[in-house]
Amino acid sequence: MVKFILFVFYFLPFHLYAQSFEGILEIKQTSLNDTSFFVYKIKNNKVKINKIDKNKKIKSYRLINLTDGHIFEINPDRRLYCEIPDKYTHGEKDRLEILKTQNHQNLLKQKCYQWRVKNESKNTEIAYWVIETGYSFFYKLLTIENKAEKYTQYFRQIPECKGALPVLITERSSLRQFRMEIEITKLLAMPINDSEFTLPNNYSEVK
Known about the structure:
By secondary structure, the protein is of the alpha+beta class. It is 16% helix and 45% strand.
């Protein structure tokens, strides 16, 4: 009985905690012409995305509600905020060649598998190194933001991707020419204060 109680205490709470991730992601995005840095803070159904400069100063940030789909963009320097309109469209899906390989490597002390997507008509290949389960917020976030970038659109078309988190994404041409890379440089589970997800009451709204 004691052994069973210890098992529940040490293993079951971790599993539940991973399924509803709360914590911080630090992300580096590199293209041919630019490098950008982001800090994601996640708690329950809320996400805060800070866009920061190389000195770690916040340039702007977004507040995203994964339940109702509301997105707010905040500019701290100008003390302004605005709501981003819903831009969801029901466009045709691309014809993709999708391969979930058994190739794996350890990234951020996590076992990551390689998923590859190829679109010959767009001269594009994307490799995702993913943690396969435990991060359901990510798919919801991609769906709500609905960015036009190929790496987000293609990822959402991969079967059984809804719990996965890409730790490293690399986009190349079909001839293997580099286009861009997105890397999670820090993944930290930790409590996040609710105040991180509230609009500042002394900012003006732009409509």
